[in-house]
Amino acid sequence: MKKNILYPLLVAIMSLSLCAIMIIGEMSGLFLNPKGQEDQASSDDKLIVVGVSQLGSESVWRTANTESIQKSLSRENGYFAILNNARQKQDNQIKAIRSFISQRVDYIVFSPVTEDGFENVLTEAKDAGIPVILMDRTVNVEDDSLYVTHVGSNMEEEGRKAGEWLEGELARRNMSDEEINIIVLKGTEGSTSEIGRSKGFHDIAKKHPGWNILAEVDADFTNTKAQEEMGKLLRQYSDIDVVISQNDDMTFGAIEAMRKRGITTGRDGDVMIVSFDACHEALTMVYNGLINVDIECNPIQGDYVSEVIRKLENGETVEKEYFVDEQVFTKENVADSLSSRAY
Ligand code: GYE
User: Fold this and answer.
1) Does residue 303 share a domain with residue 293?
2) Measured in angstroms, how far is the CA atom of residue 216 from the centroid of ligand 1?
3) Is the minimum distance from the CB of 277 to ligand 1 under 6 angstroms?
4) 137 located within any domain
5) Helical axes 280-287 vs 248-260, angle rounded to 10°
6) 187: which residues sit within 8 A by CB, 6+ positions away?
7) In a domain, 144, yes or no
8) For ligand 1, is residue 247 a contact (CB within 6 Å)?
9) Ligand 1 in contact with 193 (CB < 6 A)?
10) What is the pLDDT of residues 244-290, one digit of tens each?
11) Residues 181, 293 within the same domain
């Protein structure tokens, strides 16, 4: 009988003590460690995991673009970004995307080195239910549902701006009816930036029978390749009036090749230089008159990408294409942007 009364009493006392220990523990921080870990784990669970396949690190532009995406897709902003650098090789990009698929990332952000050749891997991403956001360059696929959206520049428009600048400059110099010898240093053959800039420039060039395009050479968007190619072209052609160089890094290489041979460039030089990107170093050269014009291509695309992801997370619809804002820089308007340009 005694035993029966004591037993529930004992259980009640033990439960109360346990509660008290837990409350005191909570207040004194005794359980802080396990709970802290739990918080960390659950906040990690809330992070949006993004696989980023960057095509390479071939240019100043690319470095700024990579930094922009890393900054926007930071942990503080709610992301866990896995970045892969493909070193300008399509195979590396395909491998990276496959690895993102097997890691079951929430999104893939992808800057394709060329437009062709990604249909299969993008189909695999779609089948796995992973939305793909194209950044900077785009892809050539029959089924455009293989990607959600493209955030980048209007490359064709950039090419047209280059042609229109040349039209205007020749008119200003009263040279519109003269024969003009042009060299085009192209970026990576088959990339969106090369295709667009070439097409845009050609659209203007074909209106001018006097514009002779002597050569169009692939210099892969790099300084060293452009220096090498420009060296060869200078041995081949003695009367070059204009170099259209599809990015600033190639422009630096081309100018160096000309400088070595005593050829001057820019406003008062032997050869007019039209460049693309508008990084700080090139804008300085525009200011100093060594480059005539720089068609801006804006690499700061991270916030646009993050905004697209935010919309998708909220179930909102997104546009198929987002173009970033860009301008044209000549000596007349470059000074203000020069001081604020961070890349
Ligand atoms: O102009 C060049 C880079 O695709 C817009 O790629 C980009 C181009 C950029 O390597 O510098």
Assistant:
1) no
2) 17
3) yes
4) yes
5) 50
6) 193, 194, 197, 218, 219, 220, 221, 246, 247, 250
7) yes
8) yes
9) yes
10) 999 999 999 999 999 999 999 999 999 999 999 999 999 999 999 99
11) yes
Q: Is residue 202 situated within a structural domain?
A: yes
Structural domains counted in the chain:
2
Regarding whether 180 and 114 lie in a shared domain, the answer is: no
pTM value is: 0.88
182 pLDDT tier (thresholds 50, 70, 90): very high
Instruction: Decide whether any atom of ligand 1 lies within 6 Å of the 59 Cβ.
Output: yes
What would you measure as the largest C-alpha separation in the chain, in angstroms?
120
Å from CA of 298 to ligand 1 middle: 9
C-alpha 110/C-alpha 150 separation (Å) is 9
Evaluate: CB of 276 within 6 angstroms of ligand 1: yes
- In terms of domains, do 189 and 253 share one? yes
Q: What is the CATH number of the domain that holds 250?
A: 3.40.50.2300
Calpha distance 6→11 (Å, rounded): 9
Write out pLDDT tens, residues 19-62.
443 433 333 333 334 445 555 656 677 999 999 999 999 999 99
Write out the residue range of the structural domain in which residue 71 sits: 34-152+299-324
- pLDDT value, residue 247: 98
**Considering the domain boundaries, does residue 218 fall inside one?**
yes
Residue 19 alpha carbon to ligand 1 centre in Å:
63
Cβ of 341 below 6 Å from ligand 1: no
Beta-ladder partners of 275: 245, 294
* 180, 253: one domain: yes
